[in-house]
Predict the 3D structure of the following.
Amino acid sequence: MGPPPAPHPSGPGPAPSAPAPLLVACALGIEQLALRAAARATGRGGGPAGPVTVLRTGMGAAAARRSVARALGAGPLTDAAVLATGFCAGLAPGMNPGDLVVAEETHDPEGGVRCTATGPLVKELTRALPGRTVHTGILTGTDHVVRGAERRALRAGGAVAADMESAATLLTAVRAGTRPVAAVRVVVDAPEYELVRIGTFKGGMTAFHVLCRVLPAFFAWHRSLPSPRR
């Protein structure tokens, strides 16, 4: 009796690794509302590279740390790529409400995180929102709204924008395991458009409408990432 026949070349091979999911973290209800509007506009409950979860963390670094650690601690999001988003304060002169900020690094008093694949993310945001200015650089974490001299001091220290949760979100994410991380923020106020000034409402609405359009770029960035090793 001869040896068993070799498997047919068209037969099933090893199953490909399932793509890691994407966790998109924001702090405020208005930010979550914008992202849900974006999800409805795309007609997707998930991204092209895997399922997407939008997590509202609550305001501030401590809330972000708790929420993200809980989300990544067990279950389907254990290996998730993490992208922090929402509104921010622009620090550089000439920035306008509705401008986008892609972090190359996030910093706060707890530490710093280098972001993943910022070039492709900038490219996809430029494609999704033609005509919108996209800034890159350091996104710094603060525990309050910054104005005036403090804004200038943060800029002098090398930061391009500030918010309260991105640095804490990404630091918590990388401490929970090796994963891609990124932060994209929409400028809601800037040196010439501080929140206390007349016109803030218009600037806020501009930023909201921009945030309603970012998810396709996030999906494309997620799709471009290499499959995680299991």
